[in-house]
Amino acid sequence: MRSGRSVAALISSVLAALLLVVAIPVSANATTADRPSIRVVGGIEVDQLKTATPWFAALDLRFRTGWASCGASVIGSRWLLTAAHCVKDGSDSAGVARSGAYVNPASTSNPGPRIKFSKIYVHPKFSLRTMKNDLALIKTRTKISTPKIRFAAAGHSPALGTALEVFGYGSTRQGSQKLATSLRTAELADLAGSTGACGRYGSDYKSKYMLCAGLPDGSKDACQGDSGGPLATGATVPVQVGIVSWGARCGSARYPGVYTRVSTYAKLITKVTGIRPA
C-alpha cells in the first residue's frame, strides 16, 4: 500500500512560513492520516529564455481550517487546471472568495499580482482514498493575458519512453521540508505507456486515470509541494499530458511519480470550459 504519511502533514510546517510556494493543500494544524504522499528532485531552475512558462500558476488556497498552495496551469483566458486534492481535502474545500492565483511568478518572494477566482469545479467522482479523478478546474474573475498551454486530446496519451517535463516549486529531495524559491523543472519519461504497470504500486495504479513518469533510476521526480502542477511534452510547443497527483516517495526507482492522465478528461475539460484540446 501507499505511504501512511498524510498528504497534508508532509509540509504543514513549511506552509506556515511560505505562503506563496507551490505546496500541498493543508490546514494550519493538520495531523498525520492514512493518505498517499504527494510529490522537483534532480531538476534545475527554469531558464525562461530556453523554456518559457507563462502558463504556470501558483495557487493561494484558503480553507475553513487554514490555507495552502499548489501548482496549476493556464489553459484558457479565465481557466486554470490543477489537481482535485489541492482544492478539496476531505470535508473541507478551498473558498472561492478568499483564494487566488499568481501567474508565472518570478519567485516566492516576488509573485506578482494576485488573481481572484469566481468558480472552482472539482471532478464529481474524485476520491481522496484512491486518488482517481484527481482533477479540478478554476475559473478566474478576470482574464489572463499570458500565453496558454494546450492539453492532450482524448486518446492522445504519450507512448512508453516519451520525453516529458514536470514543473513546480516543490522540495528538491525526499524528506526535506524546504521548498524551492523559484520554479524548477525536471526532464522525465513515460514509464508505463497507456496500459503498463507503474513501479511497485500494483493495483493502486490505474492506467486509465493515471500516468506514470520518472526515470528508471529514480534520479528525477516531482516531490512534496509540486501538487497540481503540469507534466508536459518536452516539445517546442508543449502539450500538458499530466497533473502532479501522488506517489509513495520522491526520487525512487521503485515508486515513480503518478500523475492524472489529462487525455482521459479532455472531453470533460471542454464541456466545463469550452476550450478544445491540442
Structure explained in plain terms:
The chain has three helices and 16 strands. The N terminus is likely disordered. It starts with 11 loop residues before the first helix and ends in a 5-residue tail after the last helix. The protein has a six-stranded antiparallel barrel with strand order 11-12-13-16-15-14. It has a domain of 115 residues: Trypsin-like serine proteases (Thrombin, subunit H). The longest helix has 8 residues. The protein is 6% helix and 30% strand. The protein has 278 residues and is mainly beta.
Write the CATH homologous superfamily of one domain. Trypsin-like serine proteases
Q: Which structural category fits the helices and strands?
A: mainly beta
Write down how many β-strands occur, each being a DSSP E stretch of 2 or more residues.
Answer: 16
Strand order of the largest sheet: 11-12-13-16-15-14
Helix content: under 10%
Tell me the CATH architecture of one domain: Beta Barrel
Whole-number mean pLDDT: 81
Give the strand content.
25-35%
Unreliably modeled segments: 1-42, 172-176
How large is the count of helical segments?
Answer: 3
Assembly level = single chain
| Euclidean distance between termini CA atoms | 35 Å
- Stated plainly, the CATH topology of one domain is called Thrombin, subunit H
Main sheet specs = 6 strands, antiparallel, barrel
Instruction: State the shape.
Output: globular
Order of helices and strands: HEEEEHEEEEEEEEEEEEH
What is the highest CATH level, the class of one domain? Mainly Beta
Q: What is the radius of gyration?
A: 16 Å
